[in-house]
Amino acid sequence: GTAPDATIVTDQSGNATTNNNPDVITICSNPAIALVKTNDITVGPNGCATIAVGDVVTYTFTVTNPGNVSLHNITVADPHPGLSAIALQSGDINNNSILEVTETWIFIAIYTVIQTDIDRGNITNQASVNGTAPDATIVTDQSGNATTNNNPDVITICSNPAIALVKTGIFSDTNNDGFAQVGEKINYTFTVTNTGNATLTNIVITDPLVGLTISNSPIAILAPGAVNSSVTGTYTVTQADIDAGKVTNSALATAKDPKGNDVTDVSGTTVTNNTPTVTTLTQNPGLEVIKTSNTENYSSVGDIINYTIQVKNTGNVTLHAIVVTDPLTGLNTTIQTLAPGASQEFTENYTVIQNDRVNGSVTNTAQANGFTPNETQIHAEDSAVVEAAIVLGCGTITVHNAFSPNGDGINEIFVIDNIDDILCYPDNTVEIYNRWGVLVYETKGYDNNSKVFDGRSDGRATIQESAGLPTGTYFYILNYTSIDGTGGVINNRKDGFLYLTR
């Protein structure tokens, strides 16, 4: 100001009349930073996401400056293995690498899902952000799903552990006969498929089939989609199996999922069913009757003929309710069961009657009628013939149709074997004709001795009596009777050419 005497006076402001301190307003510095981490995976109504190995997750990192000072040296870090580099996408309006209070920076990173994530059932991770204030103060924040929390980012994965077991059986026809026998094998293969999305471990195959031996179980580990056919089984066929015509059964696969829970499946014929495995055993039912006589011949009424009747199962299935009959001997009995290869014998007898002597033989048939395990009828029969024996033991009439009456003592007469046995052949006549049909010799009771044709005519008008007949071909007729086993007379005839050589 100016005094009355024109003196100019001055003063600097102060916070009192006694000082000249400047007026100072101190502003409080409050640096801060916030990080929000989100992902692009859609969660279903059951609270989990359906994702598979190889799917890509895109993470968004949103960084804001909730403080009152600008920040620089902004660094976003995420320790999750497999995450791509975190790249700034937008928000640095001034492009000066300084996070202003009014800016929001967006960072992006991607991640490819691996099997471990699915086995664990979730992808959980958390990022962090650092920034530096003008006064060199470093501020940091852990990511959350909002600026007000630091909750880790969690993607809950829908877990679907599943297994499928296919059981196949192949019959091993050891002897290659086309049919099943006790002791032959069925070879089984157990094919296990991981049809879920989680890794399975300790896969154990069990089968209630008694006598089945399983090899290569358990399977240590099986990834999703993997197939393992290393587990095999061997089963020895029983008679009960053959009688049934098949072996039917199911196996069970039990595995552990990543959480230690059991995952099971009953075997089927394909991955999508649980139909029991049926291995067909080809049946070959067979029944045989063998009837034999222990008596070679019979000759008289009252003679006993002894028979053995054997009934045998020649097939590969058990037969039952086998009715064995023999009308001649009166046999009528039932065999309740007959195993393959087994047989039963019956000894029967029959007493000869007069009609059997007349017939000259006894013929009869034994039969067996039974059932296979599936109630199919089966039949077999056999016959035995016992011939009557003539008590006289007669020889056979044999005509020798060539002789040479030339005086050398060899083959001098026309010989008919056994014609002189009058007990067997009581009557006979012999006629001999030359080639022109002229009777040159005839006799009754030909006996190869006193009544015999020696090449001479017996005195017919056309032939000189007792003349030696010339060399040539002649024709003989032999009529004779024989006695059968019952004493009856039988008329017989033989004829043919006779060759005379001098």
What keywords describe this structure?
single chain; rod-shaped; 5-stranded mixed β-sheet; mainly beta; 502 residues
Account of the protein in words:
By secondary structure, the protein is mostly beta strands. It is 4% helix and 45% strand. It is built from 3 helices and 35 strands. The chain has a 5-stranded mixed β-sheet with strand order 22-28-27-24-25. The protein has a 5-stranded mixed β-sheet with strand order 30-35-34-32-33, with no helix packed on it. A 4-stranded antiparallel β-sheet has the order 1-2-6-4, with no helix packed on it. Strand 8 and strand 9 form a beta hairpin. The protein is rod-shaped. The model has no long low-confidence stretch (mean pLDDT 93).
Distance between the termini: 204 Å
Number of strands: 35
What portion of residues is helical? under 10%
Major sheet: arrangement of strands: 22-28-27-24-25
Report the principal-axis shape: rod-shaped
Q: Decide which structural class fits the backbone.
A: mainly beta
The major β-sheet equals:
5 strands, mixed
Q: List low-confidence stretches.
A: none
Oligomeric organization of the protein chains: single chain
Instruction: Give the percentage of residues in beta strands.
Output: over 45%
